[in-house]
Amino acid sequence: MVDLGTPPTNPFPETWPAGVSADGTVVIVVAGFVAYGQVYRWENGYTVELYTGPWLPGDARATGVSADASVVVGYLPVKWTEGNRLLWTATRWQQSALGPVQYSRDLLRPDVDGQQSYAYGVSSDGLVVVGAASGLEGYWPSQAFRWVDGTAVGLGTLGGPSSTAYAASADGSVIVGRADTTDGVTEAFRWQEGRMFALGMPPGDWAGASATGVSADGAIIVGHAWTADGNDASAVEPFIWDEAHGTRSFTELLTQNGIDLTDWDLRDADISADGRVIVGNGYHISLDRQEAWIVTIPEPSTPAGLATLAAALLLAHFWRKRKR
């Protein structure tokens, strides 16, 4: 294990990882307070500070990185309103093609009449950015968007007032997130070829759900569902979805395949590009604390491979990036 430490030019002692390149050599790090601050590129040391000014330097947030770390996405504070409310704008940092490693910055949704936006995910090649913005095509308070070639296009909702996109497949053709329905329920969605589909709830009495991760080919989706009391650690449940099986409780799936989870309440989940590694966080009951976990699924690399699961739950101290 390597301690990344803190950037020498940053006064804050705390750092959070915002993303890692496909080969693991580059880490995008936020140094500041509660995952907000200055954004840095780490490559055998802190090499580049991504530009975060001139509005409120020190308050940036990075949320995703392309496969080669040439593109970083997140959001920047634009201004304080008269009501002392901070407005944010989705941001895409692009590495320069020539010369030393430097990043230019594009604001994907400029602040207009109080509108704001957030970028949460990026395709592997960095060409597609997803997130949520207010004011797109008349939706308020927000609508999921897909940004390509300088244009953010709203993805719509499931009939309700708002939606948010959190992740994209490798080529950006499949997008996942959460959206409101006409019944006022928030459901996880899968968007492809201009259409948004609700994934449904895992078995049980759940009030809402959100998709937060997708495999590179778009075939496997993970996320979490919650009850009406979503602040209770035991009231959130990770799920896994594929076309053949639909939405299933990930906890029940592990239990059915011999993994003892009596000492755990699993919560959020994310997924690797090949769909074989699921990570997340949960409440470790006997230790009375939140911890991270990882499950590795052997070949074949689909949820059906869980029939011969020999999964390992590896524990680490909790670092939480909640997407709710």
Order of helices and strands: EEEEEEEEEEEEEEEEEEEEHEEEE
Instruction: Determine the structural class based on helices, strands and strand pairing.
Output: mainly beta
Low-confidence stretches: 301-324
- Helix % is under 10%
Shape estimate: globular
Number of helices: 1
N- and C-termini, Cα separation: 30 Å
Query: How large is the share of residues in beta strands?
Result: over 45%
Number of strands: 24
Major sheet size, sense and barrel closure: 4 strands, antiparallel
Q: What this model shows, in words?
A:
The chain has one helix at 250-256, and strands at 15-20, 27-33, 36-42, 46-49, 61-65, 71-80, 86-95, 103-107, 117-122, 128-133, 143-148, 151-154, 159-168, 174-181, 186-192, 195-198, 208-214, 221-226, 236-242, 246-249, 264-271, 277-284, 289-296, 316-317. Mean pLDDT is 81; it is low at 301-324. It has a four-stranded antiparallel sheet with strand order 1-2-3-4, with no helix packed on it. The protein has a four-stranded antiparallel sheet with strand order 5-6-7-8, with no helix packed on it. A four-stranded antiparallel sheet has the order 9-10-11-12, with no helix packed on it. The longest helix is centred in the last third of the chain and has 7 residues, at 250-256. It contains one helix and 24 strands. With 324 residues, the chain is mainly β.
